[in-house]
Amino acid sequence: MTKQEALFEYLLRIGDNSLIMGHRMSEWCGHGPILEQDIALINIALDHIGQAKNWLTLACEVEGKERTEDDLAYHRDVLDFRNLLLVEQPNGNWGDTLVRGFLFDTWNYYFAKALTNSMNTQIADIATKSLKEISYHKNYSADWMVRLGDGTEESHTKMQDALNRLWMYSGELFTMDEVDEIMLKDVIGVDLHLVRKEWDDDVNATLTEATLHRPPDAWMQKGGKTGIHTEHLGYILAEMQFLPRAYPDAKW
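The chain above was modelled as a monomer; its predicted structure follows.
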């Protein structure tokens, strides 16, 4: 794998994480538990979509095949997506969405923070620009973890159940492969082992405050970073990509 190919793959991973997470959050539009949170979720979705646009636009520049960010978003099949399995998991109930967001947002904060030191100035600039939004996402999800985890018996049970179900997708957040190693060697990417320590400390502190129990680090699901996904991504793409595939020449 060349450095250019590794960089393209790396940017796809970051952009696809934001794109799929943004789509999942947008599915809450009109369905939020209360109006204020409905609006908050849509703003978070828009943040992710904006970040996805920046990352995928840069990926297209690196690839050099005259594709656009729209081509990458709407004209790739499931096996070509590189997002983490965690972000494609269904919204479920309010607790499922919050726990998924909490695990990802905490990781994304420390990941983006580390990316601000990238030797690739374009990557560092996008990460710096995104960090303020990501900080809000992290604080938002952590606040709700505490509210509901340390809330009523019912809310506590639902949050713990969601945490138990989604925990097996957290291990992939820190899996290093050839792409990560090449990016790290060139001081472009992030050492996920260092991110793991910061993530652990933050997650443990929040779970303690929320009176929630951290599940054991048993067998973890992985594969999203290399194109192996759960069935859920196919349904996401069927909905997200229908219009541009049905009318490929349409101009908006």
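The chain has ten helices and no strands.
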